[in-house]
Specification:
By secondary structure, this protein is an alpha+beta fold. It is built from 4 helices and 2 strands; from the N terminus they run αβααβα. A two-stranded parallel ribbon has the order 1-2. The longest helix is centred in the C-terminal third of the chain and has 14 residues. The two termini are 16 Å apart. The relative contact order is 0.20.
Length: 118
């Protein structure tokens, strides 16, 4: 839990340096994984020719040019990365660039918890 009374918000300091612009990201995943997670069966329909221009089937997939952050869904051994791990990567990226700041006080229970502020 965070002690909100001790927070020093930018607007209270007159700090207007926060820039809430967007950033480019890429989630790198194997096509086989995408197909296995396709609840609507779109890949199957595209392979059967029912959907034309489907990226990765009959249309070329083009990776983003120079994304600011790339998340991989599997490690070097092919093991899946947890959603928590990928979320932590994003939070760390945003904090390192000043989009987020960590809380000033953290109290923990059995498991450590972090809260982030924009």
């Amino acid at each position: 839990m965070v002690d909100h009374e001790d927070q020093d918000h930018g607007e209270q300091r007159g700090d207007t340096s926060w820039d809430y612009s967007s950033f480019s990201s890429n989630v790198s995943n194997h096509q086989q994984v995408c197909e296995s997670r396709d609840p609507k069966g779109l890949y199957k329909k595209a392979r059967a020719g029912l959907i034309k221009g489907f990226t990765g089937i009959d249309d070329v997939y083009e990776e983003p040019i120079d994304p600011e952050i790339t998340l991989t869904t599997h490690d070097a051994f092919g093991q899946p990365m947890s959603p928590e791990h990928m979320a932590t990567e994003i939070l760390n990226y945003l904090q390192e660039r000043g989009y987020l700041r960590p809380p000033l006080k953290i109290t923990t229970t059995d498991e450590p918890q972090l809260e982030w502020y924009i």
